[in-house]
């Protein structure tokens, strides 16, 4: 063929580069008897049109050999290299995380409460957790030759609480005393000593206020108070008493509050039943049998999924979801279930923002003082006492920066929960009766007819009732 009689390649074809520049396609618009091309010509044509990376040479060879097969088609002739994002860091726990023993359910709904929860014992100096660093990932490249940055994995952070020691590199966490590993709010890791009561909390023991974990091998009687910085385990029941923990609370029997008293945990509450009780948890409330005529509030979820799995009467609030087998009863007892935003989060948000302003102001003042001392050091005018001040201010600045980071992280968590009701739902695996009220965010729906196996959640701006398949 006469190459001189052939029109330039851009007469016969064009190059299409995707919006993300990760793919280039060649489109042959038409050809004539004089058309022919070589692999080198096609490669040069691509480069002239900005394609400089990831060219598929085998595909170009096929087009050069049999161009008529590709006419009017868009053929991928170059592919970019997608970035590989880094993996997020994590925390590895090195103590033995024992499985908690659950009460054994017997016939007729009875429960055997003889089993005691296992606890996570550690020794002084024992390594209890270590941080696994995030990875950087691998950058990619577009077909036009530009680099595409990979997302670096998000670093995890050890959150030391009481009686633990963290190394200088913030990588390892050790127990400072013999005791029990306990997680408190926002996953702080603590090691607490244990206080045990071999019997009921009554006039013989008085009220309990302990900076550690509390184990009670009996009941907590009406009018008494148990307060613990760590977890509380009660091998019995709770009457109209006050039981408050900065960790979690587990009650092998149940709560009979007669409308009085309070059971409140910063993390989780587990028990068999709640009758006329007031129960609050920062995270989850798990009940195996029934919740009757009670006021319940959980930051994340309320679950009542045991053999009975009954919720009837009262007010049940959860930040994310409520799950039960049966809700309400045949006499249409008023039962209110609210999921979505909890009011205390708004109060916490206001306090956090005030604290952030204060900490930020202190950080600015500290930064100015440090810059002045740095200038003195650079000019050789830093005296020993000023050097000591500089060292203390550097440590203070690090602490203030860390506190600001923690506050901002918590504010983001709350903002997300305030804005997002997509995870808010009420799930009923058996029956929900008329007389129940469902509230999601600022929307309300009354249940007019008894219904089985449904989930209530927000859909297209209203509370939808979705039947289970």
Describe this structure in words.
This protein has helices at residues 9-12, 39-48, 57-65, 343-378, 384-419, and strands at residues 13-17, 23-28, 74-79, 90-93, 104-105, 111-112, 121-122, 127-132, 140-141, 147-148, 164-166, 172-175, 179-184, 188-192, 194-197, 208-210, 213-216, 225-228, 232-234, 242-245, 249-251, 255-256, 262-265, 269-275, 278-281, 284-298, 301-304, 310-318, 321-327, 335-339, 425-432, 436-440, 443-446, 451-459, 462-467. Helices cover 20% and strands 36% of the residues. The protein is α/β, with parallel strands linked by helices and 469 residues long. The longest helix has 36 residues, at 343-378. Helix 4 (343-378) runs antiparallel to helix 5. Among the domains are: 3-79, no CATH class; 90-105 and 114-138 and 148-183, OB fold (Dihydrolipoamide Acetyltransferase, E2P); 344-419.
Q: What's the pLDDT, averaged over the residues? A: 87
Per DSSP, the total helix count is 5
Q: From the alpha carbons, calculate the radius of gyration and give it in angstroms.
A: 32 Å
Indicate the overall shape: flat
User: What's the assembly state of these chains?
Assistant: single chain
Largest sheet: 21 strands, mixed
Fraction of residues in β-strands: 35-45%
Head-to-tail CA distance between termini: 67 Å
**Unreliable stretches:** 98-107, 110-118
Helix content: 10-25%
Number of extended strands? 35
Defining traits:
single chain, 469 residues, alpha/beta, OB fold (Dihydrolipoamide Acetyltransferase, E2P), 21-stranded mixed sheet, four-stranded antiparallel sheet, 35 strands, 20% helix, 36% strand, flat
């Amino acid at each position: 063929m006469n190459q001189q009689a052939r029109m330039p390649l851009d007469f016969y074809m064009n190059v299409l580069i995707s919006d993300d520049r990760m793919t280039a396609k060649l489109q042959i618009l038409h050809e004539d008897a004089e058309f022919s091309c070589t692999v080198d010509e096609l490669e040069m044509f691509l480069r002239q049109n900005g394609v400089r990376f990831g060219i598929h040479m085998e595909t170009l060879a096929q087009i050069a050999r049999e161009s008529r097969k590709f006419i009017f088609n868009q053929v991928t002739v170059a592919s970019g290299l997608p970035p590989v994002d880094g993996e997020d860091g994590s925390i590895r726990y090195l103590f033995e995380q024992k499985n908690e023993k659950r009460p054994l359910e017997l016939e007729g709904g009875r429960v055997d409460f003889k089993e005691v929860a296992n606890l996570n014992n550690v020794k002084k100096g024992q390594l209890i957790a270590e941080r696994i660093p995030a990875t950087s990932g691998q950058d990619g490249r577009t077909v036009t030759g530009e680099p595409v940055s990979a997302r670096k994995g998000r670093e995890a952070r050890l959150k030391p609480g009481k009686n633990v020691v963290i190394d200088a590199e913030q990588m390892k966490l050790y127990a400072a005393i013999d005791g029990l590993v306990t997680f408190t709010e926002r996953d702080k890791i603590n090691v607490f000593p244990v206080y045990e009561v071999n019997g009921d909390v009554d006039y013989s023991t008085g009220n309990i206020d302990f900076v550690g974990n509390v184990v009670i091998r009996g009941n907590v009687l009406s009018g008494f108070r148990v307060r613990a910085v760590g977890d509380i385990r009660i091998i019995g029941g709770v009457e109209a008493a006050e039981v408050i923990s900065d960790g979690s609370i587990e009650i092998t029997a149940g709560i009979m509050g007669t409308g009085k008293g309070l059971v409140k945990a910063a993390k989780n509450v587990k028990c068999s039943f709640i009758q006329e009780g007031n129960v609050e948890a920062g995270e989850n409330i798990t009940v195996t049998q029934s919740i009757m005529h009670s006021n319940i509030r959980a930051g994340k979820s309320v679950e009542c999924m045991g053999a009975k799995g009954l919720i009837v009467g009262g007010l049940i609030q959860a930040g994310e979801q409520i799950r039960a087998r049966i809700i309400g009863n045949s006499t249409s007892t008023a039962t209110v279930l609210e999921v979505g935003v909890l009011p205390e989060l708004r109060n916490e948000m206001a306090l956090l923002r005030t604290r952030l302003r204060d900490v930020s102001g202190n950080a600015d003042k500290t930064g100015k003082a440090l810059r002045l001392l740095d200038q003195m050091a650079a000019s050789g005018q830093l005296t020993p006492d000023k050097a000591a001040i500089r060292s203390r201010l550097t440590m203070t600045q690090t602490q203030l920066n860390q506190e600001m980071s923690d506050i901002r992280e918590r504010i983001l968590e709350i903002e997300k929960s305030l804005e997002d009701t997509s995870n808010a739902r009420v799930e009923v695996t058996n029956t929900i009766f008329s007389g129940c009220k469902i509230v999601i965010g600022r929307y309300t729906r009354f249940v007019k007819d008894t219904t089985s196996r449904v989930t209530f959640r927000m859909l297209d701006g209203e509370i939808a009732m979705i039947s289970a398949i």
